[in-house]
Design brief:
CATH topology: Sulfate adenylyltransferase
Structural class: alpha+beta
Strand content: 35-45%
Number of domains: 1
Radius of gyration: 13 Å
Helix content: 10-25%
Strand order of the largest sheet: 1-3-4-5-2
Largest sheet: 5 strands, mixed
CATH superfamily: Sulfate adenylyltransferase
Order of helices and strands: EEEEHHE
Distance between the termini: 17 Å
């Protein structure tokens, strides 16, 4: 089972039945149907099922996903991701857009 760690609830997304997260992934890792433990500030807050995974380059991020994931437009979301991952080589690395659905919230 995967563990997805959040430090903040961007755009209050974790309050919804389904939510997106965008992660820097240099190799395929998450798959549809996998379960994940969801942590907020190192505390388990529930489990969720991965519904879909889409992989793209950072400049291919859809604006609507950025708005739903972070609450910011594409340009600002890219700036946030570049700040979160300062050593990333965005010419080769990819972003996984992951849609999850809560199984159980604690």
């Amino acid at each position: 089972m995967h563990i997805l760690k959040f430090t903040q609830n961007w755009a209050m997304k974790l309050d919804n039945k389904k939510f997106f997260t965008t992660l820097r992934i240099s190799r395929p890792f998450y798959k549809s149907g996998d379960d994940a433990i969801i942590e907020m500030k190192n505390k388990v807050i529930g489990t969720a099922k991965i519904k879909t995974v889409t992989v793209c380059k950072i400049n291919e991020l859809p604006n609507i996903i950025c708005l739903m994931d972070t609450g910011y437009d594409k340009k600002e979301t890219i700036t946030i991701l570049q700040r979160l991952y300062p050593t990333a080589n965005w010419n080769v690395e990819t972003i996984s857009i992951i849609l999850l659905e809560w199984i159980k919230r604690y």
